[in-house]
């Protein structure tokens, strides 16, 4: 019995391996050799991520000399070497090529609120209040210390975001409330209440039992929208 089981398992593995090989061969793009050749011709060798010199990045001055926006991707979130390399490149782009804005895939409101309040926050606070958790790393913390230092030197690297997800721990309501309390405490309190009510709605939507009636949802959302419209009108009327 055991021998039959082993033979069956080995046969299955061989069949699966052969099947996988066929699939891999079929899925290989026809133009892959062309891209492999392109990579060989255009790839640039870089120093170690923690290198102290930047000569290896000098090719950027020619490659992107007329580019307004540079995209820095990553093969995975949180990888030390990738973050180190990007931070090193960001510093070079700022100091040597004059790029003065860094935009993360994070909340637009949160990032801009942190940028406005950098002087009152530590680098760690600024990072955690502006970015999603996947970027809460030692390497990105170094970048935020650099952002703070550059602002103090008068050569700011402006922080912003290009996402608009709702976050229960959002820093923006705290920032906006503190700002508006000096002008109108009632409106400032409305921001805090509206954010809490919106969070409660999201909790009901995502609850396991999912017993949140649609009509009730519409009524609750309209109340929150009314609060935000009131806040927006106030800000527009007092925009200096």
Describe the structure.
With 240 residues, the protein is mainly alpha-helical. The protein has two domains: 50-163, no CATH class; 172-237, no CATH class. It contains ten helices and two strands; from the N terminus they run ααααβαααβααα. The protein has helices at residues 2-27, 32-42, 59-63, 80-97, 108-116, 123-130, 138-153, 172-181, 185-205, 214-237; strands at residues 101-107, 158-163. Strands 1-2 form a two-stranded parallel ribbon. The longest helix is centred in the N-terminal third of the chain and has 26 residues, at 2-27. Residues 1-23 have low confidence and may be disordered.
Low-confidence stretches: 1-23
Proportion of residues in helical segments? 55-70%
- For the record, give the distance between the C-alpha atoms at the N and C termini, rounded to a whole number: 85 Å
Shape: globular
Q: Tally of extended strands? A: 2
Mean pLDDT: 86
**Could you say how many structural domains there are in total?**
2
Radius of gyration: 26 Å
H/E order of the elements?
HHHHEHHHEHHH
Number of helices: 10
Structural class: mainly alpha
Sheet-strand content, in percent, reads 5-15%
Q: Give a quick account of the main beta sheet: strands, pairing sense, barrel closure.
A: 2 strands, parallel
Spatial strand arrangement across the major sheet = 1-2
Strand-helix topology:
Blueprint: H1 2-27, H2 32-42, H3 59-63, H4 80-97, E1 101-107, H5 108-116, H6 123-130, H7 138-153, E2 158-163, H8 172-181, H9 185-205, H10 214-237
Parallel strand pairs: 1-2
Helix pairs in contact: 4-7, 6-7, 8-9, 9-10
